[in-house]
Amino acid sequence: MSYRVAVAPSGFKESLSAREAAEAIAEGVLRVLPDAELDLIPLVDGGEGTAEALAAATGGRLVPYTATGPLGDPVESRFALLGDGSAVVEMAAVAGLALVPPGRRDPGATTTYGVGELIRAALDAGARRVLVGCGDSGTSDGGAGALQALGVRLLDASGAELPHGGSSLTRLAAVDTRGIDPRLADAELLVACNPYNVLCGERGVARVFGPQKGAAPAQCEELSAALEHWADALTGAFAPGVDLRTAPGTGASGGLGAGLAAVGGRLLPRFEVLLDGLDLGARLGRADLVITGEGALDAQTVRGKVPGEVARRAREAGVPVLALAGTLGEGAGEAGLDAYESIAPGPLPLPEALDRAAGLLADAAERALRTVLVGTRLRARPRGPAGPACPGTRSPRGAAPGGVVVGRHGSAMAPSSAVRSHAPE
């Protein structure tokens, strides 16, 4: 029989896009099951690769644009114009953690200014519906930089403009809204975000995500206080009576969600926005096995991460889920996965692991599939003297529609390409 395997990973931060991860997993699967029918469904969560994936899925295009990077220097970035005329701004493309070298990571100094520049460029291009994808950020400025790029002035007690970065928000004395881009009033600004992330409080974004952006514990507390002050100022200037402190999604991308919500952005659960039109539940339900993956599996996985969402939908369809991850942290077993495995065969320096991510992922998929086949053979083995049965306990089903072929694969988000014949070096 031919197995049907749905491959639905997220990207692996700073190493593989979702598409590259799906292709690497597919390579490992086909080493073991060369006749498998693979349905590749690279999933984006608003972070790296979102603009490219949505442009490909809708017949749109990427528009290159030079903008201000997270460190204040110009970076080559882009936004997407979709087939329906709307635009996608991927914050990771201009303010992502991957754009901040490890030795310069300081979330108190990095800025989202470039995000505002990309929104402005999308409006210049004629878009009146702009989707901002939040994820993989290297910032913790509450969206202050983005608002500055959109014409808002943030002033200290002397009337001077605040410098970039979340740390400077402690000195904020006034918010001058007179210069805000008037086109925002007529545009639809949608923010695809993780609803579990909030701006302030014990689970506030500075405390939860500050360490991975380079903040020591003391700086996390300083940034938390700065964002508390920022939330009060935003509320007073833009949105009296609106909760910008603990409403779902306000902490997205270092608080960018709160900043954009203050100027009329609608904070929407990212999977409701980004998975629309993929028919994901049905496609997972047609599989015998679902394989997902991400850079890390831990307690955050169940809180709005791709493997957690895939596990939830596959569970509804009654299909087992295997997850492959770069690292396994505390709480990895709480995401509803049937099995999970690290792609590292042993201790590896992080730079080497990032460089070898595609090959490690393909090898891990191969190892995991061989283990799966051992289990199916054991389950199918008769108790009498007749000998072992053929692997597999599920009977063949009708072929899945569109993009699924034996021994090859199709992609939900972009045109398919041939599976590599060997792991990249």
From TrEMBL:
Organism taxonomic ancestry: Bacteria, Bacillati, Actinomycetota, Actinomycetes, Kitasatosporales
Family note: Belongs to the glycerate kinase type-1 family.
Name by which UniProt lists this protein: Glycerate kinase
InterPro entries the UniProt entry points to: Glyc_kinase_flavodox-like_fold, Glycerate_kinase, Glycerate_kinase_RE-like, Glycerate_kinase_sf
Organism: Streptomyces gobitricini
GO molecular-function terms, A-Z: kinase activity
Classification via PANTHER family: GLYCERATE KINASE
Region of interest (Disordered), residue spans: 380-425
Low complexity composition bias: residue spans: 383-399
Gene3D superfamilies registered for this protein in UniProt: Glycerate kinase, domain 1, Glycerate kinase, domain 2
UniProt cross-references to Pfam families, sorted A to Z: Gly_kinase
The entry's keywords: Kinase, Transferase
